[in-house]
């Protein structure tokens, strides 16, 4: 049987060769269930890990682009159980490590243990819960660990003296949030980012990823000098909105074209952090 869970994530991120690892974020069911399935399966061919958002109506930390993606999925009838079923379908055809991205409320509604069990059963490998503060995460981390799942903590430029304890608790990888505020494409990053990421790397037993605003090949080239992985959400999800528009206009050819362009763009990003040899 193939290794799953935190070990699978770690292996994938460590076996990336001379390249910064690429982690795309998409919402389950965006722009609809079939496109979402195809998108994840295509991304899996050149991604090191995939982060799959569970659509949620009150996503505090999501910027407008990710929120809209979540809404498209909800409108199409996506739910937590359906998202898990979608992950199971994806798992049947690919080995790529999968992170479930969700918020505290849906986790509590589902039941912490039930959720971990379900994640494990569908072949997910880890979890990110952005609104669960480290200080309140012991129970969830403990149960995730029982099921072999990675618990990926978020660290912000404002984490300061909490960096040590948060980073040292990371399994799978540690997620450095590049900027304050919500998710969304950005043109440039804080001057403090490199030092911050290096400080997290000092304390983290696992690879360190940078996300929030990463949207262009040149960002990834720059980040590849000091990060182990990059996470790209809004730049991809924005293109899902275009697919949705084309579908609303019954232009399935255009939708397909935008889908192909999205995959090509993601592939370019995945290769942008290759170090020259
Ligand atoms: O969209 P961006 O700026 O590329 O950022 C990644 C991001 O989408 C994904 O990791 C994410 C989606 N929603 C979040 C909420 C909090 C932290 C992270 C996230």
TrEMBL record:
Belongs to the TrpA family. Its EC number is 4.2.1.20. Tetramer of two alpha and two beta chains. Pathway: Amino-acid biosynthesis; L-tryptophan biosynthesis; L-tryptophan from chorismate: step 5/5. It is an enzyme of class 4 (lyase). The active site is at residues 51, 62. NCBIfam families: trpA. This is Tryptophan synthase alpha chain.
């Amino acid at each position: 049987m193939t290794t799953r869970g935190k070990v699978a994530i770690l292996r994938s991120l460590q076996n990336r060769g001379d390249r910064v690892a690429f982690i795309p974020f998409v919402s389950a069911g965006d722009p609809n269930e079939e496109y979402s399935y195809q998108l994840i399966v295509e991304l899996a061919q050149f991604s090191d890990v995939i982060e799959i958002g569970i659509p949620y109506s009150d996503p505090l930390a999501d910027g407008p682009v990710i929120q809209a993606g979540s809404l498209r999925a909800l409108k199409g009838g996506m739910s937590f159980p359906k998202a898990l079923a979608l992950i199971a379908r994806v798992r049947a055809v690919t080995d790529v490590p999968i992170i479930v991205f969700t918020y505290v409320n849906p986790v509590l509604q589902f039941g912490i243990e039930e959720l971990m069990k379900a994640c494990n059963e569908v072949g997910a490998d880890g979890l990110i819960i952005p609104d669960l503060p480290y200080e309140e995460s012991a129970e969830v981390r403990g149960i995730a660990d029982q099921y072999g799942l990675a618990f990926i903590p978020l660290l912000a430029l404002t984490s300061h003296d909490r960096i040590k304890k948060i980073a040292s608790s990371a399994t799978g990888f540690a997620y450095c949030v590049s900027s304050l505020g919500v998710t969304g494409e950005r043109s440039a990053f804080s001057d403090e980012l490199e030092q911050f990421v290096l400080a997290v790397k000092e304390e983290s037993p696992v690879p360190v990823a940078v996300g929030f605003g990463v949207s262009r090949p040149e960002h990834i080239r720059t980040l590849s000098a000091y990060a182990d992985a990059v996470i790209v959400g809004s730049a991809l999800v924005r293109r899902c909105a275009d697919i949705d528009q084309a579908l609303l206009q019954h232009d399935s050819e255009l939708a397909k074209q935008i889908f192909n362009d999205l995959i090509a763009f993601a592939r370019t990003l995945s290769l942008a952090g290759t170090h020259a040899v």
